Every structure is written in structure tokens, then in C-alpha cells.
Amino acid sequence: MAFMESEVVPSSVASILRLANEVEASNPRVAYVCRFYAFEKACKIDPSSSRPGVRQFKTALLRRLEHDQDETLRADMQKGSDACEMESFYQHYNKTYIQPLLEAADKADRAQLKKAYQTDAIFLEVLKSLKVWKWLMR
């Protein structure tokens, strides 16, 4: 996404979009959910799109979401809700990446551990937003 490197994109949104790009190959639906959350967050940060380039960024991201929505929904129909899918992926990430790094903490590259924790925090942030939304829809 060309706008992702732009100064228009706040770092809190850019980190979510980077994560979406990283996980897209292994789980397109999780990538979609992360992008959707990034879009919501961008809308909260600048609801009127008053800063230069914000409207173009949001439009480009919305087009990407529209393009990916049907494709990821079709592929994901059997897996259940987005919250369940996100939670499953989050647990998988923890088990596969965080735990092994913690177990080898003395030997682990500190930068790698820091990145893993940052990624973990983003997954958790997106997961929490889905659970709040699910709770509100009851």
C-alpha cells in the first residue's frame, strides 16, 4: 500500500498495516481484519479527513478492504466469526513465536523478541476490538 509509508499515516495505524501485510500469506482473513481495524482507527484519529492526504489514504484502504472482503469471506466461511479466527491466530502466534523466544531468552536476539512482542500487542489490540464489538452486538 503506497500510502502506508507516508507521513499521513500515524505510526499506530502503520504498525497494524505492516502486520496485515506480514500475515496475509498465511491467513488472508486475519490480514483483512487487521486492515479493517486500522481503517476504523484512522477514522477515529481524523474523522473529518481534514489533514492533507488523509482522505486519499482512507479511500485507498477502503478500496483494498472492499476488494479483499468477498475473497476472504468465501475462503473463511467454515472457520466461524472473525473474533474466533483472530483469537485462534493470536494463540497460534503466541505458541509458535513468543513462547519459543521466551524459552530461549538468554540466547534470543533482543530485537527479534521486541518485534515479536510488538506484533503480539497489535494482535491483542485487534482481538480486543472484535470482542468489544461482538459484546455490543448482543
TrEMBL record:
One of its GO terms (biological process) is late endosome to vacuole transport via multivesicular body sorting pathway. Residues 13-129 form the Vta1/callose synthase N-terminal domain. Keywords: Membrane. It is found in: Endomembrane system. InterPro entries: Vta1-like, Vta1/CALS_N, Vta1/CALS_N_sf. GO terms for cellular component: multivesicular body. It holds the Pfam family Vta1. Coiled coil: none annotated. The keyword NADP does not apply. Signal peptide: none annotated. Gene3D superfamilies: Vacuolar protein sorting-associated protein vta1. The keyword DNA damage does not apply. This is Vta1/callose synthase N-terminal domain-containing protein.
